[in-house]
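Input (structure):
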């Protein structure tokens, strides 16, 4: 009788399955890390780039005497062009200068003298054909987007049927229309101005006038709606809690 053959390993695929499980775990951990790092990294990069862009535009208008490197080297007694000269680049200084300058201009413009000077400047600009058109359009946009009296230019988030029935898109209603448009549409019902942004660039879109009865107003905020539009529907807002709903579910009393 031939000798018994050596027993085969009980689990021949065990090393491979262990390696596969390790690879799957590493892959899942990698993607989990990307989900955490990507939003943070992209946000930091965008802020860093925007701050640098503002600095590149603002700092050339600041006298060289007041630049950080000039102040530091003047304090240390290093003459310009010497080997001891220290280069100092404070990123974000241009943003601070821009904010201070804008606040100062706004404070002056709200006063009597500032309003008079602004009115005189606008009268001069209005006499220049091309510049008056550009200035008027930019001013109107700025007055619409940047809120007057602290109120938002957009009124509500809504749904509107587009581009055909049974297909809905998220849009924003703007405060009630006025002027000739309101006069011509007044006898047809209650109309509102609707801005329907595009995906993924929510700054562009279509503006039209729609009957209030043709739209569905939503309870979500503008930030949530913008995330929904920019993400192409991937980031959906949570269901808003009703005002009359309790803060936490009540627990049933336990029977003794």
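Output (sequence):
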């Amino acid at each position: 009788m031939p000798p018994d053959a050596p027993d085969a390993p009980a689990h021949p695929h065990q090393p491979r399955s262990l390696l596969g499980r390790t690879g799957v775990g590493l892959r899942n951990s990698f993607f989990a890390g990307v989900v955490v790092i990507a939003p943070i990294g992209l946000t930091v990069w965008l802020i860093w780039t925007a701050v640098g862009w503002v600095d590149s535009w603002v700092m050339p208008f600041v006298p060289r005497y007041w630049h950080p490197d000039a102040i530091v080297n003047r304090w240390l007694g290093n003459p310009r062009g010497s080997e001891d000269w220290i280069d100092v680049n404070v990123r974000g200084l241009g943003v601070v200068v821009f904010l201070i300058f804008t606040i100062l201009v706004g404070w002056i413009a709200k006063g009597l003298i500032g309003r008079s000077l602004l009115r005189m400047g606008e009268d001069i600009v209005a006499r220049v054909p091309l510049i008056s058109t550009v200035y008027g359009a930019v001013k109107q946009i700025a007055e619409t987007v940047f809120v007057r009296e602290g109120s938002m230019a957009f009124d509500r988030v809504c749904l509107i049927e587009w581009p055909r029935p049974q297909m809905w898109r998220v849009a924003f209603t703007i405060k009630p229309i006025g002027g000739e448009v309101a006069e011509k549409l007044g006898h047809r019902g209650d109309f509102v101005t609707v801005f329907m942004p595009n995906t993924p660039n929510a700054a562009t879109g279509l503006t039209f006038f729609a009957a209030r009865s043709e739209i569905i107003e939503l309870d979500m905020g503008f930030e949530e709606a913008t995330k929904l539009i920019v993400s192409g529907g991937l980031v959906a807002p949570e269901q808003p809690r009703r005002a009359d709903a309790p803060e936490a579910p009540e627990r049933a009393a336990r029977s003794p």
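Notes: The mean pLDDT is 80. The two ends are 76 Å apart (CA to CA).
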